[in-house]
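Good morning C.,

I know you're traveling, so I'll keep this short. The sequence:
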Amino acid sequence: MADDAASAPPTAELAAASISSPPSSDLEPPSTRTRIRTILDAGDSLAGQHVVVGGWVKTGRQQGKGDFAFLEVNDGSCQGNLQVMVDKEVYPLARLTHTGTSVLVEGLLQKPPVEAKQRIELKVKTVIEVGEVDAAAYPLPKTKLNLETLRDFVHLRARTNTIGAVARIRHQLAYATHTFFDKEDFLYIHTPIITTSDCEGAGEMFQVTALFSQAEKVEKELKENPAPSEADVEAAKLVVKEKGDAVAQLKAAKASKQEITAAVLELTKAKEIVLRLEERSKLKPGIPHKADGSIAFENDFFKRPAFLTVSGQLQVETYACALSNVYTFGPTFRAENSHTSRHLAEFWMVEPEIAYANLHDDMNCAERYVKYLCKWLLDHCREDMEFMVKHVDKTAIERLELVSSTPFERISYTKAVEILEGTGKKFENKVEWGIDLASEHERYLTEVIFKKPVIVYNYPKGIKAFYMRLNDDQKTVAAMDVLVPKVGELIGGSQREERLDVLKQRILDADLPLEPYEWYLDLRRFGSVKHSGFGLGFERMILFATGLDNIRDAIPFPRYPGRADL
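The tokens, ready to paste straight into the viewer:
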């Protein structure tokens, strides 16, 4: 093994050898395209250089009596467009100027005339590729479409300035999330999308089952090849008896080994036929049910009810109870028939879990994380955030600056209720101790009362999940919510219940069966540890950052009641 390792070429040399290998004669040469962001960031310092640029035409116009055309081309790398100039001798101009046309061109970067807005433009020498557009059919005109209309063209809407900006902001927030937790020594854990546990205990889960497809398959099979009758099975059993008697007679007659072996083989085949017939005779059309009328999930793929996860928290706790600091970041699902601007059926959650941490530790981590995200956008996404300020929400950057630089207010749930009751304001949802604070209450606290983010902690146990640690007062749990301007609740978290007997009772009090949570209880049976965690709704973070009004515009492919396009 040592000799093999010593003789193996270094990784870097392998990579260099691979890249420098001569191209195969049956392959196109590799692309040398320059991103438009690189060109625009460099200003006029790249003038005189030959580059290849690809992108989609935002606007195009012929000028000079049709002698040349100007194209505004965008490749998604940034908000800005590159002005591209094409002469009619280079390519038929009418095939290039329609909005939505894709082009791959090679040319010379040059400074435009002094009076021009652009600092750099591309004079095309060669048009390499063109993806033409039927202008009459293309659904995205030059003029602005509202975001609601764009949801009908979810496969094309990323070409618009707003959705393109949201995509880049979303990417930066995801990258910042991984960077933050890596710097804080967390491990990224991939938790399952299919689960048999209901983390929230609300029961609003999407069922995962193969019973319908199995039923369709059985029904089709029975039509083509009807199930055997009882008489068919009995006849086959009679054949088995006859074959068995034949074997017994051969043995009694001391027949040759060859004769006995052949007879045993025929007997075995006859028995297999009986087994297949008996199995097929049990086939019945439709979904299988038990005697009491309930669905027989033991016939399903997982042999038990399964669902799309509403949270990876319970599963990631198993790793926190072994590896200390962990987090999961992935899609979650909720079958809530809600049509509000704040709800999706599929959404992403960032869920860290911290061993040996109490509620105070949990709040500190949440505050650091939110501030980090805000500062990251200010430092790495300024152009897109300025676009949002200009076209979506003029206070977006101010909000990020406020949250990134201001200590969060921290108050108990009881104190929050007292403050809201004392305002004299008439809310749509009445304020009283024991209610789950509505968005209007949360936003009033953070936007009007404190004018900064607020962490509310120690909520009534009746409105929180079973896994949250019961406080000594027996009325509240060690839960906390981070409230921010624009969206209200951004983060929900808690110290987890580490006491086995208390957790058991909390599960029962929530009218949940113990059996699916036995593995979760094992974490308390074997080396229980104090631990805490929280969940950040990723799309809500995007709403907060951008000022968008509808969460359906914060995710590339929104799923909500009645819509699951693509």
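Safe travels,
E.
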